[in-house]
Amino acid sequence: MFNFSYKTQRYLILFGFLAIPVLLSLTFSYYPALSLLYYSLTDWTGLGWDMNFIGFDNYVEIFTKPEVFSSLKNNLYYLIGGLIQVVFALYFAVILTGKLKGKNGFRVALFLPYVLHSVATVIMFKNVYHMEYGSLNTLLGALGLESWQQSWLGDKGIVNFALAFISMWKYMGLNMVIFIGALQSIPGDLYEAASIDGASGWQKFRYITLPSIRGVLELMLILTLTGALEAFDIPFVMLLGANDTSTFVIKTVDTAFKYQNFGLASAMAVVLLIIVLLFIVIQRKLLFREEKQS
């Protein structure tokens, strides 16, 4: 048996617990990230390992071709939809944490769309949005609103709104559940004291609820921003990015696998990462400034 000192034993235990997580992180996070950065500086086609170092030529191409960033305007639809989704998620969370009969059933009903696979969700909404036999146009016709019937997936003016609505419908339940968890952690004594002081429902929400869930709200906005910038599955499965629905990630995937330019696609992925980090920093600085300690 080895007689190690307490300090040595402590270091061995810490090393034993940290070695595997650090190794997995290096293998599946940091190494791929560094490889992505290296590939972005090459002309790799994705076939074999023949590649030439071309420096920042891929980045120059990205910033000199307007069509590369033109797809970001479609990501804006998902960002706006995501912000609306957060508002509705918080609204339903506030209602479903109160004294409402059957609230557990409503929670399940609103959370269920998140459980559905994205492909199944898109197939379902294809039947909703279909011009001829879609349930949405059928409902509008039954209500006498034939003038509202549209080619929801064929009209470039509304197709991105239709796709953004699918994203809102799918992910609102998850945000609602997270908000419910945050609201349930607020001590009820605060609301009772506010009621005794004559505070209205809006005043309770503004001065008790919002400050108490500030950290969760910040997380929701960050996830909404990153999710909007990384939108891929819904527009890709629905239309393969056709009819002016291509997002930045779809364009990146097409560049890599359709045009076999993995070097340029890697550079686009790095640029997207920088954009996400930049927006997160701006959000934290402008919307959630840390309170100065007196």
Task: Describe the structure in your own words.
This protein is 72% helix and 0% strand. It starts with 5 loop residues before the first helix and ends in an 8-residue tail after the last helix. The protein has one domain: Orthogonal Bundle (MetI-like fold), CATH 1.10.3720.10. The chain contains 14 helices and no strands. By secondary structure, the protein is mainly α. Its main location: membrane. The chain crosses the membrane at residues 12-31, 76-96, 108-129, 158-183, 216-242, 262-282. It is a multi-pass membrane protein. Belongs to the binding-protein-dependent transport system permease family. One of its GO terms (cellular component) is plasma membrane.
Radius of gyration equals 25 Å
Give the CATH class.
Answer: Mainly Alpha
Q: Ranges with pLDDT <50 over ≥5 residues?
A: none
Q: Indicate the mean pLDDT.
A: 87
CATH architect. name: Orthogonal Bundle
DSSP helical segment count: 14
Brief summary:
With 294 residues, the chain is mainly α. 72% of the residues lie in helices and 0% in strands. The protein has one domain (72-286): Orthogonal Bundle (MetI-like fold).
Which helices and strands, and how do they pair?
Layout: H1 6-39, H2 57-64, H3 66-70, H4 72-96, H5 103-115, H6 118-129, H7 135-142, H8 159-184, H9 188-196, H10 201-212, H11 214-229, H12 233-239, H13 248-258, H14 262-286
Helix pairs in contact: 2-14, 4-8, 4-11, 5-8, 6-12, 11-14, 13-14
Membrane topology: Multi-pass membrane protein
Organism: Paenibacillus lautus
Protein name: Sugar ABC transporter permease
